[in-house]
Design brief:
single chain, alpha/beta, ten-stranded mixed beta sheet, 7 helices
């Protein structure tokens, strides 16, 4: 069944929830991201049932829409955060369909619900602070919605740096972090990264990235390795790939799916 086919009622968000404060109208078929931008929203609507999708709005900004895809039998949650160029579609974006959309189509069948956060706007420092606050709230919200299942984080660009900071803050519930084309500047300190403990971290970057040099990935990898933490960190550079990684889209998708499979297996130990 297509996971983006319907909007249906189910028990979910209550009036006191901080992360999504509103949801779109329900009962509308064939929802895609273009339609989602103009859907009407009403307060306190519940989340959709398994196998469907909802457009959420953040409590920090009523226009900051994000997309939630519910897995039929959820065992973990993946939260994706990109940058403003890709919105909630993420990198590898072509015709308004990016990596985050592909993951939302593939992962629910593996028991993974997917939350695609809309990136924050503003100055770099403001964006980082707001995005971190929003991501931490999203982690807490996802844990409540999914009955305490583990949460994994995927961040592209500035979202990768924010994901690492959020993982440090919520290290008790985050099982793994994957960064894509993330800058080392603004990332957590070695002392902070050591707190990631046994968490599995994957660092991926395009070898031809002209926006964030590939050496950022190498620096971040060595920064993690020097902490002496018990978790595994991996690094991969994609040949001929730019910042958006579009040139190696299928390989990136396979690698991210493989990474989350590994993290889920570790969570079960």
């Amino acid at each position: 069944m297509c996971i983006r086919d319907s909007m249906m009622r189910a028990d979910g968000v209550t009036a006191g929830d901080h992360f999504p404060c509103a949801l779109p109208a329900i009962g509308r078929p064939t929802l895609d991201h273009h339609e989602a931008d103009s859907l009407p929203r009403t307060a306190d609507q519940p989340l959709p049932t398994a196998g469907s999708v909802a457009v959420l709005t953040s409590a920090l900004n009523s226009t900051d829409k994000s997309v939630w895809t519910q897995a039929p039998d959820c065992s973990t949650v993946l939260i994706c955060l990109g940058d403003k160029s890709g919105g909630y579609h993420g990198p590898c974006c072509s015709n308004r369909h990016g990596l985050f959309d592909s993951l939302a189509e593939e992962l629910p069948g593996m028991g993974v619900s997917v939350l695609q956060l809309r990136p924050c706007t503003g100055s770099t420092r403001d964006k980082r602070d707001l995005a971190l606050e929003s991501l931490v709230r999203a982690i807490d919200w996802a844990r409540r919605q999914q009955g305490g299942h583990s949460v994994e984080l995927l961040g592209w660009g500035l979202g990768g740096s924010v994901a690492l900071h959020a993982a440090v803050k919520r290290r008790q519930v985050v099982g793994g972090v994957c960064t894509l084309s993330a800058p080392v500047i603004g990332s957590p300190t070695e002392l902070q990264l050591a707190k990631l403990g046994s968490m599995e971290v994957m660092i991926a970057h395009g070898s031809m990235d002209s926006k964030v040099p590939p050496k950022s990935a190498q620096s971040l990898y060595h920064k993690l390795a020097k902490t002496g933490r018990t978790g595994l960190e991996k690094i991969k550079l994609y040949a001929r790939a730019e910042h958006a990684l579009l040139e190696q889209r299928e390989e990136v998708l396979q690698d991210v799916v493989g990474w989350i499979n590994e993290v889920m297996q570790l969570d079960e130990l």
